[in-house]
Amino acid sequence: MKTRISASLDCANYLALLEDVRKLERAGIEMLHIDIMDGVFVPNFAIGTNLLKKLRPQTSLLFDVHLMVVNPEAHFSLFAQLGADSITFHAEGNPRLHHLVDAVKRLGKKVGIALNPSTSPEFLRYLLPYLDLVLCMTVDPGFVGQRFVPEVVAKVEVIRKMSLELGVAVDIAVDGGISEETVPQLKRAGANVFVAGTSSIFSGREDLEAAARRFREFCERL
Ligand code: DX5
Ligand code: ZN
Fold it and tell me: How far apart are CA 107 and CA 104, in angstroms?
């Protein structure tokens, strides 16, 4: 599977957002990771719909929407209209997963399922053939800058093995504390999409364009 970087929009500089987006484009980043938080599924709020409406016509970066909301089905068509290229929702609290996956696909979008660090991956054996993406959270969702949960590396390995056994080409993304320190083990385990936040390209220690180019090359080279 192709290695790709999804830059976490919520970590960007909102006061100069378009400038940051241009830097990501010039650095060869392909996707924007868009965290949607409703203050209920996670105790925080993030990224409003008006911002996405204004941003969509400005860039051709793919919109990789990560819904951290209760009752995600109620919002699928809204995010599809806002220009999402893929819609990922959580397994936790959603018992009708095949139904939800179908609902996203009917909108013509790629579909992903997100798993919190403590969620076991076994159920995916029955779902992987229907998915484009599995998003393994490497922190509990809700906040930037949290400590990476190392046990998730083994989970990524289980999911990649399952996908090979089933013969399905599924992207495995990792989100939270993704850095030059954590990427090598995750990539070896089978992850191929890396959500870049404050632990890498948005650390503020380096110009965003240079950091994004370097991090992308680092991930691809491994
Ligand atoms: C969790 C957040 C983080 C963020 C990544 O809900 O969504 O995953 O995007 O940023 P860092 O690198 O700070 O974990
Ligand atoms: Zn996310």
Answer: 5
**Could you identify the atom of ligand 1 that is nearest to the CA of residue 175?**
8
Q: How far is it, in rounded angstroms, from Cα 221 to Cα 213? A: 12
Nearest to 36 by CA among 76, 68, 70: 68
Q: Is 198 left (phi over 0), alpha (psi -120 to 50) or beta?
A: alpha
The CA distance from 41 to 59, in Å, is: 29
Q: Is 51 helix (H, G, I), strand (E, B) or coil?
A: helix
Over residues 92-143, the pLDDT tens digits come to 999 999 999 999 999 999 999 999 999 999 999 999 999 999 999 999 999 9
The b-or-e profile of 51-89 (16+ CB within 10 A means b, else e) is: ebeebeeeeebbbbbbbbbbebeebbeebbebbbebbbb
Dig out the tokens for 135 from the structure: 């998003």
Ligand nearest to the CA of 114: 2
- What does the alpha-carbon distance between residue 38 and residue 69 come to, in Å, rounded to a whole number? 5
CB 161 within 8 A of CB 125: no
pTM, to two decimals? 0.98
Q: Domain 4-221 adopts which CATH fold?
A: TIM Barrel (3.20.20)
Domain locations along the chain? 4-221
Residues in the chain: 222
Say which DSSP state 9 is in.
G
> Ligand 1 centroid to 114 CA: how many Å?
13
35 catalytic, yes or no? yes
Ligand index nearest the alpha carbon of residue 66: 2
